[in-house]
Design goal:
By secondary structure, this protein is an alpha+beta fold. The protein has 22 helices and 26 strands. The chain folds into three domains: 200 residues, Heat Shock Protein 90 (2-Layer Sandwich); 161 residues, 2-Layer Sandwich (Ribosomal Protein S5, domain 2); 173 residues, Rossmann fold (3-Layer(aba) Sandwich), CATH 3.40.50.670. 3-[3-(1H-pyrrolo[2,3-b]pyridin-5-yl)phenyl]propanoic acid binds next to helix 4.
Length: 633
């Protein structure tokens, strides 16, 4: 086997380092790290698929919570390793083979741990079992905490080929062992979009939770953007799509405009979501802006437009996925999710320029639609710019001044600080009096709430309700939003526990999602949880947050007629001390952190609830009305 040349046999290390410092290999031992184990195993199968030998990958959450991943690739090699004198399979499972090129002549495309993923999973598993079918037999080995418990067993004849890995994570390493079907499903769907034609299935076999899904997209990224746009109105039926290779870099890109105002752009490098962008994205954006400007100049708009279209103009209403596969990707940035390879920018820029131009040549009608949209966007922007007092805008976007109604805190370290966004002047007043002014700021909202889902950025910037929020956070907005500049690490929405409160929460979350998304990505947004009831007998007092809790306290205290039950209708009913005690004091309050786990699901939800189209909203309400138990009393 030619894989084992001298260079590749270098340092082979055991698995102790992985068990000693799991964080170094999988990031965390929390839920993210747990799910990462599955991705590592699946990545190996994806590589086999990209090499052209595997069509189908099946993932199971087994009855007792273990994971099984099965593929129909060639099977991990089982021949004896010339130096280690054990089978290649055992080397793959039990050694950190530095260099990463151990098992392939070609480079590894999918993300992961450069070929040591299986060994890392094995090291962090209570038990792990691999069964390889190749050369007419199945080859089986079991490991416990990374150590083989038997020599490889060669069993009966088999015709098929493939690899099956089962593992149960080590409870002494992970905080919890509960695999989420939704989390796995989201990533597997994404992998199926990114690797067209590969069938990836997920089956939950846990009692009471049985379900199954199969993902297979022959359209690749074209299917991905159609999926992203499914609750929107596209400007053209067929997404623009192309795939091309240059200097060893493969780029696959799909884009489709819709009639909305937001830009939805996903980028991937070697199947890893590059949330922080990078050179591939820069190259794509440059080429898109240039290509559309070239078309504009040649069009009927050419003579009438004084200025070029800006990047924002040409990306309004754009849904796009950019995926590149790079031989030696370099990941940078805070979360190592920014592609750094400088050569990629030029490569992608040229590929996109050429392919977009020729696609547009063949689709003149689509060009007209896109140009109309971009030119309208550009005019709207220009008009808004003129109408507004520029200096004022500059001041408030860059943290020059603070809004008049903000009661700021005294601490200047954003990590310690929180801002309560409060609807209504009366609740705002109680909150100002009840707070700890060292680290808690209060921003009361007033005026008519804007639904940002139906507006352009310009209108948002001019809105009297939104402006103070942008100003108070001090980190700008939209594409310029810089999460590192925020003045508070906790942004707490405090609204009543009723229908109006829900409406305000939803409007504010829509705003954060569309215009300050990193705020959600980094977990800075919270919901205050004011109590629903106050129960008391004499001096004994309990604040409770839902009906269930109320009933359990009532039965704990005994069915005593003297229990006084007060239902709070709104924040305004509480005096400052009560508000502090129940809702604001970090030692006694409970707050909910809002996190963005699934962009696609969130996007769809906001589009449905807040967007222009009424029928999907009606359907959503009809489908969900029955599960609303306590609307408002
Ligand atoms: C290296 C060489 C060969 C197969 C694989 C790796 C392989 C690894 C994994 C991990 C999960 N599934 C996999 N499928 C295949 C094949 C070498 C040959 O047959 O010549």
């Amino acid at each position: 086997m030619n894989e084992y040349d001298a260079q590749q046999i270098q340092v082979l290390e055991g698995l102790e380092p992985v068990r000693k410092r799991p964080g170094m290999y999988i990031g965390t031992t929390g839920p993210d790290g747990l799910h990462h184990l599955v991705y590592e195993i699946v990545d190996n199968s994806i590589d086999e698929a990209l090499a052209g030998y595997c069509q189908k990958i099946e993932v199971f959450i087994e009855e007792k919570g273990s994971i099984k991943v099965r593929d129909d690739g060639r099977g991990i090699p089982v021949a004896e390793h010339p130096v280690e004198k054990i089978s290649a399979l055992e080397v793959v499972m039990t050694r950190l083979h530095a260099g990463g090129k151990f098992d392939k002549g070609s480079y590894k495309v999918s993300g992961g741990l450069h070929g040591v993923g299986a060994a890392v999973v094995n090291a962090l598993s209570d038990w792990c079992e691999v069964e390889v079918s190749r050369e007419g037999h199945t080859h089986f080995q079991r490991y416990e905490k990374g150590v083989p418990v038997n020599p490889i067993k060669i069993n009966g004849a088999t015709e098929g080929e493939g690899t099956q890995t089962r593992f149960y994570p080590d409870a002494t390493i992970f905080e919890e062992l509960d695999f989420s079907y939704d989390v796995l499903s989201k990533r597997l769907r994404e992998l199926a979009f990114l690797n067209k034609g590969v069938e990836i299935s997920l089956t939950d076999e846990r009692p009471g939770q049985e379900k199954n899904r199969i993902f297979k997209f022959d359209g690749g990224l074209k299917s991905f953007v159609q999926y992203l746009n499914k609750s929107k109105t596209p400007l053209h039926e067929e997404p623009i799509w192309f795939e091309a290779v240059r200097d060893g870099v493969t780029a696959e890109i799909a884009l489709q405009y819709n009639d909305g105002y937001t830009e939805t752009l996903f980028s991937f490098a070697n199947n890893i979501n590059t949330r922080e962008g990078g050179t591939h994205l820069t190259g794509f954006r440059a080429a898109l802006t240039r290509t559309i400007n070239d078309l504009m100049k040649k069009s009927k708009h050419g003579k009438k437009m004084d200025d070029s279209l800006s990047g924002d103009d040409v990306r309004e209403g754009l849904t796009c996925v950019v995926s590149v596969k790079v031989p030696e990707p370099q990941f940078e940035g805070q979360t190592k999710s920014k592609l750094g390879n400088s050569e990629v920018k030029g490569i992608v820029e040229r590929l996109v320029g050429e392919n977009l131009s020729s696609w547009f040549e063949e689709h003149p009608r689509v060009v007209d639609n896109i140009l109309d949209k971009a030119v309208t966007a550009s005019r709207a922007r220009a008009a808004a710019r003129r109408a507004r007092d520029l200096t004022r805008r500059k001041g408030f976007l860059e943290g020059g001044g603070l809004p008049g109604k903000l009661a700021d805190c005294s601490d200047r370290n954003p990590e310690n600080c929180e801002v309560y966004i409060v609807e209504g002047d009366s609740a705002g007043g109680s909150a100002k009096m009840g707070r700890d002014r060292k680290f808690q700021a209060i921003l009361p909202l007033w005026g008519k709430m804007l639904n940002v889902e139906k507006t352009r950025l310009e209108k948002v910037l001019a809105n009297e309700k939104m402006q103070p929020i942008i100003q108070a956070l001090g980190a700008s907005v939209g594409n310029e939003f810089d999460v590192e500049k925020i003045r508070y690490h906790k942004v707490i929405i405090m609204a009543d526990a009723d229908v109006d409160g829900s409406h305000i929460r939803t409007l504010l979350l829509t705003f954060f999602f569309r215009y300050m998304q990193p705020l959600l990505d980094f977990g800075h947004v919270y919901l205050a949880m004011p109590p629903l009831f106050k129960l008391s007998i004499g001096k004994r007092i309990a604040y409770v947050y839902d009906e269930k809790e109320r009933d359990s306290i009532l039965s704990e205290w005994g069915e005593n007629e003297k229990i006084n039950i007060q239902r709070y209708k709104g924040l305004g009913e509480m005096n400052p001390d009560q508000l502090w005690e129940t809702t604001m004091n970090p030692d006694t309050r409970s707050i909910k952190q809002v996190k963005l786990e699934d962009f696609v699901a969130a996007d769809e939800m906001f589009t449905t609830l807040m967007g222009e189209e009424v029928p999907p909203r009606r359907k959503f309400i009809e489908d969900n009305a029955l599960s609303v138990v306590n609307l408002d009393v």
